[in-house]
Amino acid sequence: MGVVSPPAGDVDYARYGIGYAGHRRADPRIAARILEALGTASTVLNVGAGAGSYEPDDRAVVSVEPSEAMIAQRPTTPRRVVRAVAGSLPLPDRAVDASMATVTVHQWPDPLAGLREMRRVTAGPVVVLTFDPDCLDRLWLAEYAPDVYRAEVARYPTVDALVAALGGDAVVDPVPVPFDCTDGFTEAFYGRPEAFCDPGVRRSQSAWSFVDPVVEAGYAADLRRDLDSGRWDERYGHLRTEATFDGALRLVVSR
Ligand SMILES: C[S@@+](CC[C@H](N)C(=O)[O-])C[C@H]1O[C@@H](n2cnc3c(N)ncnc32)[C@H](O)[C@@H]1O
Q1: pLDDT digits (tens, 9 = 90+) for 200-221
Q2: Ligand 1 in reach of 103 Cβ (< 6 A)
Q3: Which of 70, 71, 74, 143 pairs with 103 at a CA distance of 20 to 30 A?
Q4: By CB neighbour count within 10 A (0-12 exposed, 13-18 middle, 19+ buried), where does 140 fall?
Protein backbone atom coordinates (compact mmCIF):
# COMPACT_ATOMS: atom_id res chain seq x y z
CA MET A 1 0.00 0.00 0.00
CA GLY A 2 1.30 3.47 -0.88
CA VAL A 3 2.09 6.03 1.80
CA VAL A 4 -0.36 8.95 1.86
CA SER A 5 1.51 12.15 2.63
CA PRO A 6 -0.24 15.19 4.12
CA PRO A 7 -0.86 18.11 1.73
CA ALA A 8 2.08 20.49 1.34
CA GLY A 9 -0.24 23.49 1.25
CA ASP A 10 -3.43 24.50 3.03
CA VAL A 11 -5.73 22.54 0.70
CA ASP A 12 -6.05 18.79 0.32
CA TYR A 13 -6.12 18.43 -3.45
CA ALA A 14 -6.59 14.68 -3.19
CA ARG A 15 -10.03 15.66 -1.88
CA TYR A 16 -10.73 19.06 -3.40
CA GLY A 17 -8.72 18.89 -6.63
CA ILE A 18 -11.10 16.58 -8.49
CA GLY A 19 -12.12 18.31 -11.71
CA TYR A 20 -9.71 21.22 -11.16
CA ALA A 21 -8.25 21.14 -14.67
CA GLY A 22 -11.70 21.23 -16.27
CA HIS A 23 -12.80 24.38 -14.42
CA ARG A 24 -9.44 26.13 -14.20
CA ARG A 25 -8.18 26.38 -17.77
CA ALA A 26 -5.44 28.93 -18.45
CA ASP A 27 -6.97 32.13 -19.81
CA PRO A 28 -5.20 33.17 -23.03
CA ARG A 29 -5.19 36.90 -22.18
CA ILE A 30 -3.65 36.30 -18.77
CA ALA A 31 -1.25 33.78 -20.34
CA ALA A 32 -0.05 36.48 -22.75
CA ARG A 33 0.81 38.75 -19.82
CA ILE A 34 2.80 35.98 -18.15
CA LEU A 35 4.62 35.10 -21.36
CA GLU A 36 5.60 38.71 -21.88
CA ALA A 37 6.92 38.92 -18.31
CA LEU A 38 9.04 35.80 -18.82
CA GLY A 39 10.87 37.70 -21.55
CA THR A 40 13.49 35.81 -23.52
CA ALA A 41 14.05 33.11 -20.89
CA SER A 42 14.63 29.73 -22.45
CA THR A 43 14.47 27.74 -19.19
CA VAL A 44 11.46 28.31 -16.93
CA LEU A 45 10.61 26.89 -13.50
CA ASN A 46 6.90 26.69 -12.62
CA VAL A 47 6.35 26.40 -8.85
CA GLY A 48 3.01 25.11 -7.51
CA ALA A 49 2.36 24.11 -11.09
CA GLY A 50 -0.84 22.17 -10.47
CA ALA A 51 -2.25 20.82 -13.72
CA GLY A 52 0.18 22.94 -15.77
CA SER A 53 -1.84 26.08 -16.50
CA TYR A 54 0.11 28.99 -18.00
CA GLU A 55 3.24 26.96 -18.74
CA PRO A 56 4.70 28.27 -22.01
CA ASP A 57 4.95 25.74 -24.87
CA ASP A 58 7.99 27.30 -26.48
CA ARG A 59 10.48 27.03 -23.59
CA ALA A 60 12.06 24.26 -21.55
CA VAL A 61 9.83 24.10 -18.45
CA VAL A 62 10.50 22.32 -15.18
CA SER A 63 7.47 22.12 -12.92
CA VAL A 64 7.47 21.78 -9.15
CA GLU A 65 4.24 20.41 -7.69
CA PRO A 66 3.70 18.50 -4.43
CA SER A 67 0.23 17.05 -5.07
CA GLU A 68 -0.11 13.76 -6.92
CA ALA A 69 -3.79 14.49 -7.56
CA MET A 70 -2.82 17.66 -9.41
CA ILE A 71 0.06 16.05 -11.31
CA ALA A 72 -2.41 13.40 -12.50
CA GLN A 73 -4.46 16.15 -14.19
CA ARG A 74 -1.57 17.44 -16.29
CA PRO A 75 -1.73 16.92 -20.03
CA THR A 76 0.51 14.09 -21.15
CA THR A 77 3.57 15.98 -22.32
CA PRO A 78 7.24 15.17 -21.93
CA ARG A 79 7.67 18.04 -19.44
CA ARG A 80 9.48 17.31 -16.20
CA VAL A 81 7.52 17.49 -12.97
CA VAL A 82 9.39 17.36 -9.69
CA ARG A 83 7.45 16.54 -6.52
CA ALA A 84 8.79 19.19 -4.19
CA VAL A 85 7.71 22.31 -2.30
CA ALA A 86 8.37 25.99 -2.80
CA GLY A 87 10.12 26.39 0.54
CA SER A 88 12.91 24.01 -0.46
CA LEU A 89 13.48 23.99 -4.21
CA PRO A 90 15.82 21.20 -5.30
CA LEU A 91 17.86 23.44 -7.60
CA PRO A 92 21.19 25.29 -7.30
CA ASP A 93 21.42 29.09 -7.29
CA ARG A 94 20.48 30.80 -10.59
CA ALA A 95 19.68 27.43 -12.20
CA VAL A 96 16.89 28.72 -14.46
CA ASP A 97 16.47 31.83 -16.60
CA ALA A 98 12.99 32.64 -15.25
CA SER A 99 10.43 31.27 -12.83
CA MET A 100 6.70 31.58 -12.35
CA ALA A 101 4.08 30.83 -9.70
CA THR A 102 0.42 31.26 -10.62
CA VAL A 103 -2.38 31.42 -8.05
CA THR A 104 -0.44 29.30 -5.59
CA VAL A 105 1.62 31.37 -3.09
CA HIS A 106 -1.36 31.78 -0.73
CA GLN A 107 -1.39 28.01 -0.18
CA TRP A 108 2.23 27.66 0.86
CA PRO A 109 2.96 27.29 4.61
CA ASP A 110 5.51 30.14 4.34
CA PRO A 111 4.90 32.09 1.12
CA LEU A 112 7.74 34.53 1.72
CA ALA A 113 10.29 31.75 2.23
CA GLY A 114 9.06 30.15 -1.01
CA LEU A 115 9.43 33.40 -2.91
CA ARG A 116 12.96 33.86 -1.57
CA GLU A 117 13.72 30.35 -2.83
CA MET A 118 12.37 31.25 -6.28
CA ARG A 119 14.56 34.35 -6.32
CA ARG A 120 17.58 32.25 -5.31
CA VAL A 121 17.26 29.69 -8.10
CA THR A 122 16.36 32.19 -10.84
CA ALA A 123 18.82 34.28 -12.84
CA GLY A 124 16.18 36.48 -14.53
CA PRO A 125 12.54 37.35 -13.92
CA VAL A 126 10.42 35.82 -11.14
CA VAL A 127 6.78 36.14 -12.20
CA VAL A 128 3.98 35.76 -9.65
CA LEU A 129 0.27 35.84 -10.42
CA THR A 130 -1.66 36.41 -7.22
CA PHE A 131 -4.46 38.38 -5.56
CA ASP A 132 -4.06 41.50 -3.47
CA PRO A 133 -5.86 40.78 -0.16
CA ASP A 134 -6.63 44.49 0.27
CA CYS A 135 -8.72 44.49 -2.93
CA LEU A 136 -10.65 41.24 -2.54
CA ASP A 137 -13.71 43.16 -1.32
CA ARG A 138 -14.19 44.61 -4.81
CA LEU A 139 -16.04 41.45 -5.82
CA TRP A 140 -19.68 41.28 -4.73
CA LEU A 141 -19.11 37.69 -3.58
CA ALA A 142 -17.56 39.13 -0.40
CA GLU A 143 -21.07 40.16 0.61
CA TYR A 144 -22.79 36.94 -0.45
CA ALA A 145 -20.14 34.59 0.95
CA PRO A 146 -18.38 36.41 3.81
CA ASP A 147 -16.63 33.29 5.12
CA VAL A 148 -15.07 32.74 1.69
CA TYR A 149 -13.91 36.35 1.66
CA ARG A 150 -12.47 36.10 5.18
CA ALA A 151 -10.63 32.88 4.31
CA GLU A 152 -9.13 34.52 1.23
CA VAL A 153 -8.01 37.69 3.01
CA ALA A 154 -6.26 35.63 5.68
CA ARG A 155 -4.38 33.49 3.15
CA TYR A 156 -2.93 35.95 0.67
CA PRO A 157 0.35 37.66 1.53
CA THR A 158 0.18 41.45 1.15
CA VAL A 159 1.70 42.87 -1.99
CA ASP A 160 4.29 44.75 0.08
CA ALA A 161 5.43 41.56 1.83
CA LEU A 162 5.63 39.75 -1.46
CA VAL A 163 7.72 42.48 -3.08
CA ALA A 164 10.05 42.58 -0.07
CA ALA A 165 10.57 38.80 -0.23
CA LEU A 166 11.55 39.13 -3.88
CA GLY A 167 14.25 41.65 -3.05
CA GLY A 168 12.31 44.89 -2.96
CA ASP A 169 12.35 46.02 -6.57
CA ALA A 170 9.46 44.05 -8.09
CA VAL A 171 6.91 45.73 -10.35
CA VAL A 172 3.23 45.12 -9.51
CA ASP A 173 0.60 45.47 -12.22
CA PRO A 174 -3.16 45.00 -12.01
CA VAL A 175 -4.49 42.30 -14.33
CA PRO A 176 -8.01 43.06 -15.56
CA VAL A 177 -10.15 39.92 -15.55
CA PRO A 178 -11.86 39.29 -18.92
CA PHE A 179 -15.64 38.73 -18.88
CA ASP A 180 -15.32 35.25 -20.37
CA CYS A 181 -12.20 34.32 -18.38
CA THR A 182 -11.57 30.59 -18.78
CA ASP A 183 -9.67 30.25 -15.49
CA GLY A 184 -12.49 29.78 -12.98
CA PHE A 185 -11.16 31.61 -9.93
CA THR A 186 -13.83 33.59 -8.08
CA GLU A 187 -13.31 36.95 -9.87
CA ALA A 188 -13.68 35.18 -13.24
CA PHE A 189 -17.43 35.09 -12.59
CA TYR A 190 -17.89 38.75 -11.66
CA GLY A 191 -20.52 39.12 -14.40
CA ARG A 192 -21.70 35.48 -14.58
CA PRO A 193 -23.06 34.99 -11.04
CA GLU A 194 -25.04 31.84 -11.92
CA ALA A 195 -21.71 29.99 -12.01
CA PHE A 196 -21.51 30.02 -8.21
CA CYS A 197 -24.68 27.92 -8.07
CA ASP A 198 -22.67 25.08 -9.62
CA PRO A 199 -20.96 23.01 -6.88
CA GLY A 200 -18.26 21.99 -9.37
CA VAL A 201 -17.25 25.63 -9.88
CA ARG A 202 -17.07 26.19 -6.12
CA ARG A 203 -15.07 23.02 -5.59
CA SER A 204 -12.39 24.26 -7.98
CA GLN A 205 -12.01 27.45 -5.89
CA SER A 206 -10.06 26.39 -2.82
CA ALA A 207 -11.40 29.09 -0.46
CA TRP A 208 -14.72 27.24 -0.29
CA SER A 209 -12.94 24.29 1.33
CA PHE A 210 -12.57 26.43 4.48
CA VAL A 211 -16.31 27.03 4.76
CA ASP A 212 -18.73 24.79 6.64
CA PRO A 213 -20.77 22.85 4.02
CA VAL A 214 -24.09 23.95 5.59
CA VAL A 215 -22.99 27.59 5.46
CA GLU A 216 -21.82 27.10 1.86
CA ALA A 217 -25.21 25.69 0.86
CA GLY A 218 -26.87 28.69 2.52
CA TYR A 219 -24.71 31.14 0.55
CA ALA A 220 -25.58 29.37 -2.72
CA ALA A 221 -29.28 29.42 -1.84
CA ASP A 222 -29.19 33.16 -0.99
CA LEU A 223 -27.56 33.91 -4.34
CA ARG A 224 -30.05 31.70 -6.21
CA ARG A 225 -32.92 33.50 -4.49
CA ASP A 226 -31.54 36.95 -5.43
CA LEU A 227 -30.93 35.85 -9.01
CA ASP A 228 -34.48 34.53 -9.30
CA SER A 229 -36.01 37.66 -7.77
CA GLY A 230 -33.89 40.06 -9.82
CA ARG A 231 -32.31 41.57 -6.70
CA TRP A 232 -28.76 40.64 -7.75
CA ASP A 233 -29.31 42.27 -11.13
CA GLU A 234 -30.73 45.42 -9.58
CA ARG A 235 -27.50 45.89 -7.67
CA TYR A 236 -24.83 44.31 -9.84
CA GLY A 237 -26.45 43.69 -13.21
CA HIS A 238 -24.20 46.31 -14.86
CA LEU A 239 -21.35 43.79 -14.48
CA ARG A 240 -23.02 41.52 -17.02
CA THR A 241 -21.97 43.90 -19.79
CA GLU A 242 -18.57 45.00 -18.50
CA ALA A 243 -15.79 43.58 -20.67
CA THR A 244 -13.28 43.39 -17.82
CA PHE A 245 -13.21 43.58 -14.03
CA ASP A 246 -10.67 45.61 -12.12
CA GLY A 247 -10.42 43.41 -9.06
CA ALA A 248 -7.56 42.03 -6.98
CA LEU A 249 -5.60 40.05 -9.58
CA ARG A 250 -1.97 41.19 -9.79
CA LEU A 251 1.11 40.29 -11.76
CA VAL A 252 4.27 40.76 -9.73
CA VAL A 253 7.54 40.69 -11.65
CA SER A 254 10.96 40.80 -10.02
CA ARG A 255 13.85 41.12 -12.47
C1 LIG B 1 -4.77 26.82 -7.06
S2 LIG B 1 -3.55 25.64 -7.54
C3 LIG B 1 -2.75 26.54 -8.87
C4 LIG B 1 -2.12 25.61 -9.85
C5 LIG B 1 -1.57 26.28 -11.10
N6 LIG B 1 -0.41 27.09 -10.80
C7 LIG B 1 -2.63 27.08 -11.80
O8 LIG B 1 -2.41 28.28 -12.09
O9 LIG B 1 -3.68 26.52 -12.12
C10 LIG B 1 -2.34 25.75 -6.26
C11 LIG B 1 -1.26 24.71 -6.36
O12 LIG B 1 -0.24 24.99 -5.39
C13 LIG B 1 0.25 23.74 -4.93
N14 LIG B 1 0.94 23.91 -3.62
C15 LIG B 1 0.38 23.90 -2.40
N16 LIG B 1 1.33 24.03 -1.46
C17 LIG B 1 2.52 24.13 -2.10
C18 LIG B 1 3.87 24.28 -1.67
N19 LIG B 1 4.19 24.36 -0.36
N20 LIG B 1 4.84 24.35 -2.61
C21 LIG B 1 4.52 24.28 -3.93
N22 LIG B 1 3.25 24.13 -4.39
C23 LIG B 1 2.27 24.06 -3.50
C24 LIG B 1 -1.00 22.88 -4.84
O25 LIG B 1 -0.69 21.51 -4.75
C26 LIG B 1 -1.73 23.29 -6.11
O27 LIG B 1 -1.39 22.48 -7.20
Answers
A1: 999 999 999 999 999 999 999 9
A2: yes
A3: 143
A4: middle
What pLDDT digit, counting tens, does each position of 122-151 carry? 999 999 999 999 999 999 999 999 999 999
8 A C-beta contact, residue 105 and residue 114: yes
Protein residue with least CA distance to atom 13, ligand 1: 48
Nearest-CA residue for ligand 1 atom 25 is 67
Is there an atom of ligand 1 within 6 Å of 209 CB? no
Q: How many helices (H) and strands (E) does the chain have?
A: 11, 9
Question: Which residue stretches of the chain have pLDDT < 50?
Answer: 1-3
Residue 211's pLDDT is 95
> Measured on CA atoms in the order 95, 81, 37, 154, is the torsion positive or negative?
negative
Structural domains in the chain?
13-254 (3.40.50.150)
Alpha helix segments (H runs only) across the chain: 13-16, 20-23, 28-38, 68-71, 111-121, 141-144, 146-155, 159-165, 199-203, 213-229, 231-236
Q: What length does the chain have?
A: 255
Chain-centroid distance of CA 1 in Å reads: 32
